[in-house]
Amino acid sequence: MIEQNLFKGRHFQTNIILLCVRWYLRYALSYRDLEEIMLERGLHVDHTTIYRWVQSYAPELEKRCRPHLKACNDSWKVDETYIKVKKVWFYHYRAVDSEGNTLEFLLSPTRDTEAATRFFLKALRSTIDGTPHVHPVEEQKASPQLRLTPSHQFLE
């Protein structure tokens, strides 16, 4: 997409939109926090407008930035723990490379072969592609080159 088409018809300038979207995605700010920050700078932007910007432009930013992210290395380890999230216990699977960067993670209510397989497919996919990112489960199951053999069924 050309920038003119991407931001055509918007009331605010391109740099204001990108700044709000980037700050929302990068920092732990709410839409109302961003509304307040922009108001301090003399811009009256409603929080629902910022929400619409994030929904509209975040996928495009992710698509354009993904090739520039640093690829992970070939050495990585897997960690599993049991954590409580909003008063519910979950199994937390995590893949970390040798430099300490988290490659993938998965929260699962069950500790079984299906959850482990789902996690390893995500982790393998992220290392094959070179950058970590999330794929839908249907897409993971559809890729035949990433099938785990029955010898990997260690979490029963």
Automatic annotation (TrEMBL):
Stretch list, region Disordered: 131-156
Ranges of Polar residues composition bias in the record: 142-156
Assigned keywords, A-Z: DNA recombination, DNA-binding, Transposition
The DDE domain, residue ranges: 74-127
InterPro entries linked to this entry: DDE_dom, IS_Transposase, Transpos_IS6
NCBIfam families listed in its UniProt record: transpos_IS6
Name this protein carries in UniProt: DDE domain-containing protein
